[in-house]
Amino acid sequence: MSATIFTIANQKGGVGKTTTAINLSVALARRGIPTLLIDLDPQANATSGIGHQKIPGKSLYGVLHGEGKAEDRIVETSEKNLFLIPSEVDLAAIEMELNQKPDYLVQLRRCLEPIRNSGKFHAIILDCPPALGMISMNGLASADYLIIALQCEYLAMEGLSQILNVLEQIRTAGINDKIKLGGILMTMYDIRTNLSRQVVTEVRNHFSKDVFDTMIPRSVRLAEAPSFGQSIFQYDAQSSGAVAYEALAKEMAKRFSLKKG
After folding, report:
1. Where would you tag: which of 22, 57, 189, 223 has the fewest CB atoms within 10 A of its CB?
2. What is residue 36's three-state secondary structure?
3. How many domains does the chain have?
4. Looking at residue 108, which CATH number applies to its domain?
């Protein structure tokens, strides 16, 4: 059984992308689904946010240059069923260096193929940088599904058509004709504001079933957790953020037929 690969991407920063990568991965693992979180952002916020140090030589940088295997970069986390390939600052150089390689858009896919087919994981979550550069494009070329984290504000909506256009280009160019829009996740939802409600209504009107039922609330506890190297489930399991990510994991497990290990 090969793993299902999800890339969480948005060219805009500050939309809850890494927060979602961390807490969705933990929530899936807690449901008994063997999950691998791969941090592809040179800032390594998913790495530190889940409680791991940024250690030189432990990212996929060397692997993308043909040095070693991706599976050798996998480390355990404090969560049962959850594993991590960390990031570090050297990964930033890949943005320029990948251009020099033939088939530069599928380098990551080749590296991840043995892991995908190993049977060890049922879900692989890719946390991409907040830009549509080489790393993010490689993430899209590797994934089965794109998950878009979309902040509940109008400026965030402007970039939605851009990333959907890139998705279509990836498909039509034959780089990854299997990738589909897995869903749009509304983040930083504030029920007290008309703006949040209006944005959600507009996105649902345009994209209907592509929008997840679950919405991630604007939450101080969600913002605080990564600074302690903890997921929201470790930091405050009773918070609204924890409840939301638990619901999202349940929704995704059903939508994509993710089985327990």
Report:
1. 57
2. strand
3. 1
4. 3.40.50.300
